[in-house]
Amino acid sequence: MEQTIARNIISLKHLGIRTGQIHYQLSPETLTEQTLLQGQGEISATGALCIRTGKFTGRSPQDKFIVKDALTANTVHWNNFNMPIDEQYFLQLRQKMAGYMSEQPALWVRDGYVCADDRFRLNIRVINEHAWSNLFAYNMFMRPTQEELKTFEPDWIIMQAPGFEAEPKLDGTRSPHFAIISFTHKMILIGGTGYTGEMKKGIFTILNYILPQQQQVLSMHCSANVGRLGDTAVFFGLSGTGKTTLSADPNRQLIGDDEHGWTKDGVFNFEGGCYAKCIDLTAEKEPEIFAAIKPGALLENIVFVPGTNEVDFSAKDITENTRVSYPLHFISNAKSPAVAGIPRNIFFLTCDANGVLPPISRLTREQAMYHFISGYTARVAGTEAGVTEPKSTFSACFGAPFLPLHPGKYAQMLGEKLQQHDVNVWLINTGWIGGAYGTGSRIKLSYTRAMITAALNGELDDLKYELLPYFRLQVPMHCPGVPSEVLNPRKNWPDAAAYDQRAAALAHDFVQNFEKYASGVTAEILAAAPVLHNDQN
Ligand code: ATP
Ligand code: MN
Prior knowledge:
Layout: H1 2-9, E1 21-24, H2 28-37, E2 41-43, E3 49-51, E4 64-67, E5 83-85, H3 87-103, E6 106-114, E7 122-128, H4 131-140, H5 146-150, E8 156-161, H6 168-171, E9 178-182, E10 187-191, H7 197-215, E11 218-226, E12 232-237, H8 243-247, E13 253-256, E14 259-262, E15 266-269, E16 273-277, H9 287-291, E17 298-300, E18 323-327, E19 339-341, E20 343-350, E21 360-363, H10 365-374, E22 376-380, E23 390-394, H11 407-420, E24 424-429, E25 432-433, E26 441-442, H12 445-456, E27 465-467, E28 474-476, H13 489-492, H14 496-514, H15 523-526
Parallel strand pairs: 1-6, 3-17, 4-5, 4-9, 7-8, 8-10, 12-20, 20-24
Antiparallel strand pairs: 2-3, 6-7, 9-10, 11-12, 11-13, 11-14, 14-15, 15-19, 16-18, 17-18, 21-24, 22-23, 25-26, 27-28
Helix pairs in contact: 2-4, 10-11
């Protein structure tokens, strides 16, 4: 039924795609059934569709290109994440891809949109080789009503075919897999990889280009939620730092878990769903996310407990980056529409495997700018035997791989907003305490949650703070729900001298990383840099 209607209204001929069957706008149930029928998935004990994304189980940032043309040549900040490609290659690949798609017995097409604030809405048409990729699009982008579909015109098109590979020598790519954005043609081509996250981050990249330049909206790699009194909080952070986990809070309405815009009136979600990590997920620690794994949810790259359909959330057999996508309303207290007022609190999340940064500290405006531009986190380098040293990562604005403009643009906009509004900014270390990775341990999620709750409730406002050396961060001496000895890293390391050594090394990394921004910021922001010596002894 759905399919018959679909064939009448959707044609892809203008893209050079002539295929037998187009499955248009199918329901999650039908997409799930089709995936099962094609032997591409299984159903978990709680009813979620489990698929494997293939060779790629994560994004491939080195294979993402932006077409360099009259529009982008002088507006895109060309760097390792924004690599130029000639329009000629884009056109050639689009044609080849259309040929490949035309050979498929069927394609899946879905119309959706992004930006919960109607003023900025962009319609997206997604064309997929597989049904399960199309379920991801259903979950992650916003879902137009039947009425809206009648007049739907796509602003942007994504063509995604995991089975189509480029020929690097002929097609101007680095590898057979690629994601190419053309702002002129308003298209994203994704080939050679089935990792679904490429679709959402492709759209995030275009919004990070369009919104700040054309709409004066600050686009942000952050999660967001709102309290009963209408107080908005946003949580910036690189991958794995806790955006999704910490924004799911039973006492606050969820706005979104990853991508938002900040307008003159408030914040809004770009997406219509969440994309949560599943590794070591438990119902006790993350009840909201756990409960969202039900029919309609799409689980990626997990394995079952042998002989059952129970997901083994601890298993890393395929990847550590196991994921689940689900529509926003699968979280019981999600806000609809996903918009809220001007943030009262901003959290910068870092997962510091060096164990140097305090679990919570309050930032001055200048420190906030310094840490925003730095975008620090330190993940453990790998899970392979022997690789145990944390690797410091600096990613401007907590999202360099997705930012087509110079980081200074986003930083300037945040700076103006911090000046304009009364906002508290907190730095949260969701990583190691009591030592670096290897000797210390990851801070308990319940402690991090308690610290965030205390900050949001104003319970940290009138407390005593102490100043941490090197980073000169204001650390509260007490926090409700958290043992006080957890709060000051220099005191909770077994050996203060070892802490000093590690802190000095990290301070050095910060300063070195910041050199490229030094000439573009004020003296006050520069003065918020860490110092290389313990200035308190
Ligand atoms: P991405 O941008 O890749 O989606 P993210 O910022 O949303 O990443 P999460 O998906 O929230 O990151 O991942 C944080 C992971 O760290 C989760 O698996 C969570 O269970 C785990 N974790 C452990 N301890 C903590 C803590 N104290 N605070 C936050 N997360 C923690
Ligand atoms: Mn996330």
